[in-house]
Design goal:
The protein is mostly helical. The protein has three helices and two strands; from the N terminus they run αααββ. The protein starts with a helix and ends in a 5-residue tail after the last strand.
């Protein structure tokens, strides 16, 4: 009987450890994807706002349109998008290697723009 209880406790411990380890890896991957997305969006907005001289109202309009097209979307307010641009503009100077993440493809008016994203 004692052996059964020990085996049960060991099985619970092993499974619990596997679950916690998997949850940690998943959180780490999600964080990396979020950073990659934010870096890519920041690069896109930075390049467009500098080349095409976007004003503040363009970023606000983009944010509003995203909210209309993707109800429930969070984290893409005009302020957040400007923060993504700042994030990109600050961190791009420290990237001395070619980012390895897949290219972020944004379709704007039938044009597809490839932006290389940051990867952890």
């Amino acid at each position: 009987m004692e052996t059964s209880i020990q085996q049960y406790k060991q099985a619970v411990s092993v499974i619990k450890e596997a679950i916690l380890h998997s949850q940690y890896r998943a959180a780490k991957m999600v964080t990396g994807e979020e950073l990659s997305l934010n870096f890519g969006i920041g690069a896109y907005v930075s390049n467009r706002s500098r080349q095409e001289k976007w004003g503040t109202s363009i970023i606000e309009s983009i944010s509003e349109q995203l909210r209309r097209e993707l109800p429930g979307l969070r984290g893409f307010s005009a302020r957040s998008i400007r923060n993504m641009r700042t994030f990109y503009e600050y961190w791009k100077q420290y990237l001395i290697w070619q980012p390895t993440a897949a290219k972020l493809q944004l379709s704007i008016n039938q044009d597809t723009i490839d932006i290389k994203c940051f990867s952890l």
